[in-house]
Design a protein that fits this description.
The protein is mostly helical. Helix content is 83%, strand content 0%. 50% of the residues are buried. This is MFS transporter. It holds the Pfam family MFS_1.
Length: 418
Amino acid sequence: MTTEPRAATSGSTARDAATGWVRPLCWTAVALEGFDLVVLGVVMPVLLRDPTWDLDPAGASVVVTVGLLGVMVGALAVGPIADVVGRRATMIGTVAGFSVLTLACAFAPNPEVLGGLRFLAGLGLGGVLPVALALVAEYAPPGRGSSSTTILMTGYHVGAVLTALLGILLIAPFGWPAMFVAGTVPALILVPLLWAKLPESAAFLARRQAGGSRDSSWRAERRNPLTTLFRDGFARPTIAFWISSFMGLLLVYGLNTWLPEIMRSAGYELGAALALLLVLNIGAILGLLLAGTVANRIGVRPATIGWFAAATLFLALLSIRLPGIGVYVSVLLAGIFVFSAQVLVYAYVSQLYPAEARGTALGTASGVGRLGAIAGPIIGGALLQAGIAYPWGFYVFAVVAALGALGVVLVGRAPARA
């Protein structure tokens, strides 16, 4: 009589143990993505001065842009794939794929080969985030979906910081290829752990089991998650999320790329300009920790609108040359709201869509947002070229943040099906 309850308890314990691995494994995968997406910025100063590569800033921009295009294509493609074949297999495949291609970058003989390898690596890199967000949202404790998402995204910034630190330690004694080799080493541990410990999405397993008992036409319809994004009242939220994600990533990449140079054009010394970039990213980490807690308390929709609105205010404030510590406080506050506003968009997407289309919804929002990631540096560079980056660059970025808030407003009420 006691055998059955013991078996049930054992099964429940095993499931709980598997669930406990989801967040640390996904966080580590996102940290690797942060490393790989920032590593070019660390090695590029060396490549630009390597006479054997004959690389100029324009060519370097092409290499970076090609890699971002790969990330965009990967984000758009991998979300639907994960919703069809399963998130566990997709996560393992994307991490293994971009790690192998990152290692290959260490042996690139010229910019053309490096750009091609970065594009291919970007296909996997773009897929990691939507799958990780979908899994973490599904396995988040009740009432903590927003904070689970924002904590996950701290992995990106930790990976970025580690990239800079490893660049200081490795490039001088070992050369730039060592950075790509170092970025591959963690995958030797992570991929086996993903294989052994990462559980499959419970919603995916339930859907697959239910589909086995229905006719083939029903399964064909349900296995196309893209249709869900534009049916049953989801069309307007889908487009509105795309707008907000585009604006959010435009701000993230535009500011990270050009903030030091914009502040130099405003008359700040190089050391102060670089310190302001560091302060901006410290604010990003603080904002990620704060935004999720606030969203859990007041709801993700008002929190996201409020975060974009605050970003609008503090970006506009940066157009005023403040004395002393004032500029550092302003940049810190801008970082708190700019970066986490985009992450709250992801949290909102993961909570609004049904489980069978969650990966697709996150993938398309991330993929369309990558167009903003490309546009941000281009806009900042054009303003600098025109000599009006300060103060007009901050006015432009403030308008972009306001449009991000408007996009979230346009999401409207959740469809009844959600």
